[in-house]
Amino acid sequence: MELYLNTYGTYLHRRGDMFEVKIGEEKKCISAQRISSIVISNAAQITTDAIQLALEYNIDILFLDKFGDPYGRIWFPRMGSSTYIRRKLLEIYEHDEGLEYVKKWIFGKLDNQYEFLQELLSKRPGINQDLVNEIEKIREMQGQLKLVSGKLKDNMGRIMGLEGNSARIYFSIISILLPDKYRFKGRSNRPAKDVFNACLNYGYGILYGKVERALIIAGLDPYIGLLHTDNYNKKSLVFDFIEPYRILIEKPVFYLFSRRKIKEEHYDEINQGVTLNDEGKKILVPQLLEYFDQVERYGNKNMKIIARIQSDAHKFANHLIGKM
How does pLDDT run across 225-283, given as a tens digit for each residue? Predict the structure, then answer.
């Protein structure tokens, strides 16, 4: 399980082989064996003995800012990227293989967008035909993506253009399908212009941490990317690899809003935007965790939805070194 500390005044320390979480006068002890990761945001406090316990049990600690973006992590020292895998990752950038990986990740993202919109429309009989036609444009862009060939560095603009156009269609339709009070005008980041984007951003921040962890465990260097290779000192491979998994945030967030679970008291207005407050995070995070823990068929195995990231990271690393 993931342990999320996102309430002001939360205090985490060690008690033997247990973590003790204290919020005000309330205390709760959790066995370290049950924890896979710890995520800390807001003014939560963690002691050095709790950090030591986390490291003893290979539990990584991720720190999020108020927008949900990771700004630091404490990682167990026994993990690290393989030099051979790192070298292979650098090599494929100059070959057709690098382009094929990027196409696969972006194609998967577009496929998820198309399938989710089709799922939503299937529950709304009599939908406007113009909306159906817009969704089909995502399929057309997938067809164009398949035809891209050559060197990755020569096709970055085209690929990112297709991905961007698909995203604009996708989120415009998502907005239309939401209750009127939650509709928004496109994606917005720091700060979010609306509460829907604030929830997406916070959820993506959690997802970034999970993708980075999966890559490192698989022996991949999160700083060596393909499509986002020009982001100096950024975790470029995380930005590449995350694309087909964004749907793991978008689905539960959409249903949170379509079921009108987010209220005005769950977010605060800030300069030029809005941000989730403690109460909003208490609504969002359990919704995401519940969805992550659902078991579905993936490939030829039944696994938790969130586990597919680690599975795919291992497959990618093994393919790089010729084990598949």
Answer: 888 875 656 789 999 999 999 999 999 999 999 999 999 999 999 888 999 998 999 99
Q: How far is CA 266 from the centre of its chain?
A: 21
Parallel, antiparallel or unpaired: strands 10-15 and 45-46: parallel
- Set out the domains of the chain in order of their start, with CATH numbers: 2-74 (3.100.10.20), 83-320 (1.20.120.920)
As a whole number of angstroms, the distance between CA 319 and CA 299 comes to: 16
How, if at all, do strands 60-64 and 70-74 pair? Answer: antiparallel
pLDDT band at 178; cut points 50, 70, 90: very high
Confidence of residue 115 (pLDDT cuts 50, 70, 90): very high
Which token pair is 230?
């020009």
Question: Residue 101 burial (CB < 10 Å; 0-12/13-18/19+)?
Answer: buried
Q: Buried b vs exposed e over 1-27: b needs ≥16 C-beta within 10 Å?
A: ebbbbbbeebbbbbeeebbbbeeeeee
| pTM (global) more than 0.90 | no
Selection from 29, 34, 41 nearest residue 4 by Cα = 41
73 forms beta bridges with 62
Map residue 93 onto helix, strand or coil: coil
199 pLDDT exceeds 80? Answer: yes
Q: How far apart are CA 119 and CA 296, in angstroms?
A: 17
Give the phi and the psi of residue 81 in degrees, each rounded to 5.
-75, 145
CB neighbour class for 211 (10 Å; exposed up to 12, middle 13-18, buried from 19): buried
- Supply the mean pLDDT for the chain: 89
Give the residue with greater pLDDT, 213 vs 107: 107
